[in-house]
Specification:
Helix 4 links the parallel strand 3 and strand 4. Helix 2 packs across helix 3. The chain contains seven helices and six strands; from the N terminus they run αααβββαβαβαβα. With 201 residues, it is an alpha/beta fold. It has two domains: 47 residues, Helicase, Ruva Protein, domain 3; 117 residues, Dna Topoisomerase Vi A Subunit, Chain: A, domain 2. Strands 4-3-5-6 form a four-stranded parallel sheet. It has a two-stranded antiparallel ribbon with strand order 1-2.
Length: 201
């Protein structure tokens, strides 16, 4: 941080850097902009963040963010309980919901397995997921963790749990984006696309 900023501004910049994709320069610009031109908005932001931290909690069924005991998806009787899509974060739920293509339920791990960081099955709620798969009328578990080393390891762990309960397990395809060009893709993406190919007949 720049020594020319006050301690309070330095702390604000530091906190803004917690946001994904925000580096020191961007955080400094944001902090100074809020203080210089948008103090009313900055106050609203502070209040909104404080209220969210107080009110938002995890759904007792799927671990997604909610302000009630059950989130809107888990309490929706129109959603089928036969499918559970396992994702890493609430951001993934938002992405799926924007497609309007999925009408099942979710389980949000709030992370992935990472032994080197001390994140094991218990830390991401694997025990809760296993209990839910035991109790609910689930027929299929859809694995939608990220295509990273940790995400794949997490998917494998969940798959083993589901298979032990004789449930159908599927993995979302990872491959070529719509409108993408093969020559612009990395080897890992092409490999996933090839492995996830489907017959046209």
């Amino acid at each position: 941080m720049s020594g020319r900023l006050t301690p309070s501004i330095d702390q604000l910049v530091k906190c803004l850097r917690y946001l994904p994709g925000v580096g020191p320069k961007s955080a400094t610009r944001m902090a100074l902009h809020l203080l210089e031109r948008n103090q009313d908005r900055a106050a609203e932001l502070a209040i909104a963040l404080s209220e969210a931290l107080t009110r938002v909690k995890r759904c007792t069924c799927c671990q997604n963010f909610t302000e009630e005991e059950l989130c809107a998806i888990c309490s929706d009787p129109r959603r089928t309980e036969k499918q559970i899509c396992v994702v890493e974060s609430p951001t993934d739920v938002v992405a799926f919901e924007q497609t309007s293509a999925y009408r099942g339920r979710y389980f949000v791990l709030m992370g992935h397995l990472s032994p080197i960081d001390g994140i094991g099955p218990r830390e991401i709620g694997m025990d809760k997921l296993q209990s839910r798969l035991h109790e609910a009328e689930v027929e299929e578990v859809i694995l939608a963790t990220n295509p990273t080393v940790e995400g794949e390891a997490t998917a494998h762990y969940v798959a083993e749990i589901a298979k032990s309960l004789n449930l159908t397990v599927s993995r979302i395809a990872h491959g070529i984006p719509v409108g993408g060009e093969l020559g612009m893709l990395d080897a890992g993406t092409l490999s996933h696309a090839l492995e996830g190919r489907k017959s046209l007949l």
